[in-house]
Amino acid sequence: QVQLVESGGGLVQPGGSLRLSCAASGFTLDYYVIGWFRQAPGKEREGVMSISTSEGALYYADSVKGRFTISTDNAKSTVYLQMNKLKLEDTAVYYCAAGEPLKSKWYDPRAEEFDYWGQGTQVTVSS
After folding, report:
1. Model confidence over 48-75: pLDDT tens digits?
2. Which neighbouring-strand residues pair with 43?
3. pLDDT value of residue 30
4. Beta strands in 13-126 (DSSP E)
5. Which of 51, 80, 85, 120 is at 20 to 30 A from 10, Cα to Cα?
6. Cα gap 23→63, rounded to integer Å
């Protein structure tokens, strides 16, 4: 069965850093578009970053450009989201997701286009 498990969330002060991990199993990681999404209370789930290894392409939301970095470790079947210079508005539950490449657009990731989801990990930025 396809499974994605996030970890690495926690409480951090503004300006701090966290690295989220998404461990994948049950499928070939390189085949799918892999996205990171976040959802704050009362707000819609939004795409943060995505990667398409088959296309050799990355997407960065304007809100995180220059602060967040996505990377993969194929040997460990793990996708990472490195978050630096965290802001109060980054507080949310963060999810990793996998989508079929013809359905999930790496250049404009939308939650409804992704098929498989992790359980989410809470990131709280507070002073």
Report:
1. 999 988 888 999 999 999 999 999 898 8
2. none
3. 80
4. 18-25, 33-39, 46-52, 57-60, 68-73, 78-83, 92-99, 116-117, 121-125
5. 51
6. 25
The strand pairing partners of 117, in sequence order, are 97
Q: Which two tokens mark 50?
A: 């995505």
**Contact between residue 19 and residue 8 where contact means Cβ atoms under 8 Å apart:** yes
- Average pLDDT over all residues of the chain: 94
Q: How far apart are CA 43 and CA 16, in angstroms?
A: 23
The residue among 27, 46, 38 whose CA lies nearest residue 99 is: 27
From the DSSP assignment, how many helices (H) and strands (E) are in the chain?
0, 11
